[in-house]
């Protein structure tokens, strides 16, 4: 063995597993955060519905709080959180 | 004036009135005699009504039984009548008792105990006293007074009369107090004094010829003084003589006589003498001598005639004092003569001219003659004007000549010297009133007239060579004249713009631009601080000029400043201590402030910061943070939020890696844990965008990577990871024939080197296909390994550049004096593509700003012509844009229906809501 790796500094970029690049509610990109937050990441997470649409958690919470029926704003199906994430 | 026998009739009753109106309790004691005649002669202030109902001039008999209850004396102790109040047997009116009261009185303005006269009746009004006042000083504030009231006392009355010659009848009583110091029941009264009345003393008459005789004596004395001879008479006698003459109303005559004598002397002796002198210098000397002699004589004469001056002249407004008369005569007969005057003034001007040319002249002579002119009050009329004219002429020619002959610094020193000389002149012999005009003249002729040429000819040179003392002098001279500083400031400003432009504009000098800028700024600041007195105008001018020239070349300075900061913050920059670095960063921030396109700076700074953080080349976290806070202070939180996000990511990654290491150690698997994996997990939006690259990793690395991915996604659901091999770096342990080494390499370099574990030789194509690294990247990587300073590989054929036919071989004899060799510098190096991409991104982002600005303006104006819109945009946009760019953005907005062209006027736009 002429060369052997001793240490390795690697770099990775994380992205949301979203099927869209923008939140359907606030129209801000998922790479960013909802209009009320400043720091993307765990402070402003994404949530996925069973209908497979995803939103900023803060956005969908606000939406659901304002609606009588708990439906997805995109497809009007009943809103429920998808439990098994990829 | 009551006569002695009248006093017998006086009753001894008193009325004491307390005056409530003044702040002091003034005790007014009035004695009302039974004898109404004397009462009526005395003016009385209106007395308050007493309890008894009496007012004014009223008599109140003090009841002997209870004197202390007398209403008027309340508040004062009133001694009860002494036993001797029984009538004294020696007096013929035994029925009237003697009382003795004592009480305190405040002092008024009178410094001495004295009974006030009726004229001062607001204090005291003794109406009449049938007794005696006895005054004793108790302390400085009050007097104790006693008065003894008894029935008419002849001896006392007589005594009173004896002293009453000068004053009015009542106050005279006060004077008697001294005699009765031994106050008591029966004071011993001195022997009776007789009043003797004498006639007025007759004034002595003077002899008829007194006036003539005395004047003769005085005249002799005056002439003796004028001819510098001995005075025969005693000076005191002369003085007395003058006094006497004044007393006998001969003052006017005496004054006239004196004037005649002096005038004669001046006209007959002094003036012709002066006229006789021909030589100019001697003339001045003689003039001075005459003047001095005249002054001396006048002083002596005045001393003798002082009494005249005081008693007669002072009270007669129409005639001047003896001294002034002397001056007037001198003025009239000597200097008033055209010839003498001209010769004097011209002589003076000649002397001054000589002195200006460097000769030594008799300053005391000048001073004394100029003082003479001042004293004679003709300084302004005959001298000052001509002097200033001459000065003006001299310096006009001198200024013109020297501006041609001299270099500017030399000229400035000359001007300073001249100004100093002229103010010395004022100090030494000129009248101080001339100072302003004189200095002003010199300033005008030597500075104001040449402002433009001094600045044009010399300023640049002075600034270039950093000649601080000369610049300081320049400033101080220019600050004297109107517009001087404004002009200086203007030229200074254009100098900075010109010089600065040469620093900025030339792409050849890009490497040293920022350092040059910093040095230039330091130099200018130093000049402003040390030479221009930190004048606000100049400070602002420097700022304005820097801002102007730095933005002459768009974008590049911002980029270079960002890179300069990067170089300073990078690891291995050991030239500066922390404080020095801090100071340097502050200076850079000043430079940064001038730049309009701050987005360019941000983009490049971000790119470099990312590399520093990811490749671990940041010199100090503190310095990074301090720079960040400076930027935040300068541009606000929005500007730095992404940069802060980067630091946050690094912190989060550190936590994740710690957790991951724990995870690995718990994980019992066959994986080779000798590799120490650290992953920086980045949040997309914060970091510069990196192109996604796929490379072939060795199996164990791939597996390792997968483990981390699982670990990470387990912690953060809903995410995916995108690996960024371009930014990875490794530490390799290498074995050479000369021993073991540690190589710090980029991931790509590591991938290439790892290929050589199994074989000795590999061709370019083999390496490329095995690693799957993109062409440009692999070439750079191979070049760094085979053609750089540390050659781990050997290339055949040898050469600087890598070509596709090259073959590579492991370099067994690799030698380096260091154990740990860094070969990954290429990772930090900015490639041209990177630079271009960053620039592109900035321009791209700017489009949004332009769009936003256009929409903002159109929304406000609704309708606007193209020209006006463009000019408004230039006002709003902080970075430089070309009109074509703007046109493109406008077109794009029209396409997107934000605005529309006016149908009738195609050069006009309408906002579409």
TrEMBL record, chain A:
Keywords: Cell cycle, Cell division, Metal-binding, Mitosis, Nucleus, Ubl conjugation pathway, Zinc, Zinc-finger. Pathway: Protein modification; protein ubiquitination. Residues 34-76 form the RING-type domain. Together with the cullin protein ANAPC2, constitutes the catalytic component of the anaphase promoting complex/cyclosome (APC/C), a cell cycle-regulated E3 ubiquitin ligase that controls progression through mitosis and the G1 phase of the cell cycle. The APC/C complex acts by mediating ubiquitination and subsequent degradation of target proteins: it mainly mediates the formation of 'Lys-11'-linked polyubiquitin chains and, to a lower extent, the formation of 'Lys-48'- and 'Lys-63'-linked polyubiquitin chains. The mammalian APC/C is composed at least of 14 distinct subunits ANAPC1, ANAPC2, CDC27/APC3, ANAPC4, ANAPC5, CDC16/APC6, ANAPC7, CDC23/APC8, ANAPC10, ANAPC11, CDC26/APC12, ANAPC13, ANAPC15 and ANAPC16 that assemble into a complex of at least 19 chains with a combined molecular mass of around 1.2 MDa; APC/C interacts with FZR1 and FBXO5. Interacts with the cullin domain of ANAPC2. Interacts with UBE2D2. Belongs to the RING-box family. This is Anaphase-promoting complex subunit 11. It comes from Allacma fusca.
TrEMBL record, chain B:
One of its GO terms (biological process) is protein ubiquitination. It is found in: Cytoplasm; Nucleus. It comes from the Eukaryota. Pfam families: Cullin (PF00888), Cullin_AB (PF26557), Cullin_Nedd8 (PF10557). Pathway: Protein modification; protein ubiquitination. GO terms for molecular function: ubiquitin protein ligase binding. SMART domains: CULLIN, Cullin_Nedd8. Residues 556-786 form the Cullin family profile domain. Keywords: Cell cycle, Cytoplasm, DNA damage, DNA repair, Isopeptide bond, Nucleus, Phosphoprotein, Ubl conjugation, Ubl conjugation pathway. InterPro entries: Cullin, Cullin-like_AB, Cullin_CS, Cullin_homology, Cullin_N, Cullin_neddylation_domain. One of its GO terms (cellular component) is nucleus. Belongs to the cullin family. PANTHER family: CULLIN. This is Cullin-4B. It comes from Allacma fusca.
């Amino acid at each position: 063995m002429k060369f052997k790796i001793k240490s390795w500094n690697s770099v990775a970029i994380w992205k949301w597993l979203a099927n869209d690049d923008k939140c359907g509610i606030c129209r801000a990109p998922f790479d960013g955060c909802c209009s009320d937050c400043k720091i993307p990441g765990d402070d402003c997470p994404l949530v996925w519905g069973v209908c497979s649409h995803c939103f900023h958690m803060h956005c969908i919470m606000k939406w659901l709080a304002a609606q009588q029926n708990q439906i997805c704003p995109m497809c009007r199906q009943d809103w429920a959180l998808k439990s098994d994430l990829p | 004036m009551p006569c002695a026998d009248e006093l017998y009739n006086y009753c001894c009753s008193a009325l004491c009135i307390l005056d409530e109106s003044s702040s002091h309790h003034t005790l007014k004691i009035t004695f009302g005699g039974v004898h109404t005649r004397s009462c009526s002669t005395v003016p009385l202030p209106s007395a308050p009504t007493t309890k008894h109902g009496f007012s004014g001039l009223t008599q109140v008999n003090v009841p002997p039984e209870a004197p202390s209850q007398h209403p008027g004396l309340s508040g004062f102790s009133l001694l009860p009548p002494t036993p001797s109040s029984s009538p004294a047997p020696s007096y013929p009116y035994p029925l009237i008792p003697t009382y003795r009261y004592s009480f305190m009185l405040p002092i008024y303005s009178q410094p001495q105990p004295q009974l006030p006269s009726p004229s001062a009746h607001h204090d005291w009004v003794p109406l009449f006293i049938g007794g005696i006042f006895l005054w004793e000083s108790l302390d400085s504030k009050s007097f104790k007074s006693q008065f003894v009231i008894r029935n008419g006392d002849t001896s006392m009355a007589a005594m009173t009369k004896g002293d009453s010659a000068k004053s009015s009848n009542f106050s005279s009583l006060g004077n008697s107090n001294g005699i009765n110091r031994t106050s008591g029941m029966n004071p011993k009264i001195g022997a009776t004094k007789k009043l003797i009345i004498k006639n007025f003393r007759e004034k002595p008459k003077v002899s008829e010829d007194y006036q003539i005789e005395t004047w003769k004596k005085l005249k002799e004395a005056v002439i003796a003084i004028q001819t510098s001879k001995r005075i025969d008479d005693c000076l005191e006698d002369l003085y007395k003589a003058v006094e006497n003459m004044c007393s006998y109303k001969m003052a006017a005559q005496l004054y006239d006589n004196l004037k005649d004598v002096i005038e004669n002397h001046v006209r007959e002796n002094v003036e012709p003498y002066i006229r006789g002198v021909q030589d100019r210098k001697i003339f001045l000397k003689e003039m001075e001598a005459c003047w001095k002699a005249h002054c001396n004589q006048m002083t002596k004469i005045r001393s003798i005639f002082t009494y005249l001056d005081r008693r007669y002249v002072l009270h007669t407004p129409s005639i001047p004092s003896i001294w002034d008369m002397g001056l007037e005569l001198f003025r009239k007969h000597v200097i008033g003569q055209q010839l003498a005057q001209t010769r004097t003034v011209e002589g003076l001007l000649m002397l001054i001219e000589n002195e200006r040319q460097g000769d030594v002249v008799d300053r005391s002579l000048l001073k004394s003659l100029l003082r003479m002119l001042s004293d004679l009050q003709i300084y302004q009329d005959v001298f000052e004007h001509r002097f200033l004219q001459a000065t003006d002429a001299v310096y006009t020619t001198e200024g013109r000549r020297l501006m041609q002959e001299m270099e500017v610094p030399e000229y400035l020193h000359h001007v300073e010297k001249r100004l100093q000389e002229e103010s010395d002149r004022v100090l030494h012999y000129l009248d101080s009133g001339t100072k302003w005009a004189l200095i002003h003249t010199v300033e005008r002729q030597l500075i104001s007239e040449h402002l433009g040429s001094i600045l044009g000819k010399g300023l640049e040179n002075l600034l270039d060579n950093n000649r601080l003392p000369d610049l300081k002098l320049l400033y101080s001279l220019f600050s004297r004249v109107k517009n001087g500083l404004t002009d200086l400031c203007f030229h200074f400003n254009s100098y900075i713009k010109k010089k600065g432009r040469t620093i900025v504009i030339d792409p050849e000098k890009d490497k040293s631009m920022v350092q040059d800028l910093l040095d230039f700024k330091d130099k200018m600041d130093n000049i402003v601080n040390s030479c221009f007195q930190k004048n606000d105008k100049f400070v602002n001018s420097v700022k304005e000029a820097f801002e102007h020239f730095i933005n002459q070349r768009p974008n590049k300075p911002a980029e270079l400043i960002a890179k300069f900061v990067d170089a300073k913050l990078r690891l291995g920059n050991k030239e500066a201590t922390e404080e020095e670095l801090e100071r340097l960063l502050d200076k850079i921030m000043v430079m940064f402030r001038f730049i309009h396109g701050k987005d360019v700076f941000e983009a490049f700074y971000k790119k470099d910061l990312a590399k520093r953080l990811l490749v671990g080349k940041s010199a100090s976290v503190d310095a990074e943070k301090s720079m960040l806070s400076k930027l935040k202070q300068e541009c606000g939180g929005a500007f730095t939020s992404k940069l802060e996000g980067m630091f946050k990511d690094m912190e989060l990654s550190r936590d994740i890696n710690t957790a991951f290491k724990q995870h690995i150690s718990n994980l019992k698997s066959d994986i080779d844990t000798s590799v120490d994996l650290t992953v920086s997990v980045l949040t997309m939006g914060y970091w510069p965008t990196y192109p996604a690259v796929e490379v072939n990793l060795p199996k164990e690395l791939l597996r390792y990577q997968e483990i981390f991915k699982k670990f990470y996604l387990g912690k953060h659901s809903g995410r995916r990871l995108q690996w960024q091999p371009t930014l990875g770096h490794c530490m390799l342990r290498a074995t050479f024939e000369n021993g073991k080494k540690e190589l710090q390499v980029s991931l790509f370099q590591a991938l290439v080197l790892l290929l050589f574990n199994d074989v000795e030789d590999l061709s370019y194509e083999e390496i490329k296909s095995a690693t799957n690294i993109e062409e440009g990247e692999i070439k750079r990587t191979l070049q760094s390994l085979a053609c750089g300073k540390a050659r781990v590989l050997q290339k055949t054929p040898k050469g600087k550049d890598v070509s596709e036919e090259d073959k590579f071989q492991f370099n067994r004899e690799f030698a380096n004096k260091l154990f740990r060799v860094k070969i990954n510098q290429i990772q930090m190096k900015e490639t041209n593509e990177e630079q271009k991409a960053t620039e592109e991104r900035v321009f791209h982002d700017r489009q949004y700003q332009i769009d936003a600005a256009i929409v903002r303006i159109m929304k406000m104006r609704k309708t606007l012509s193209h020209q006006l819109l463009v000019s408004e945009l230039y006002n709003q946009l902080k970075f430089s844009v070309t009109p074509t760019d703007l046109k493109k953005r406008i077109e794009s907005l029209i396409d997107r229906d934000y605005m529309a062209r006016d149908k009738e006027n195609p050069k006009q736009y309408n906002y579409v809501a």
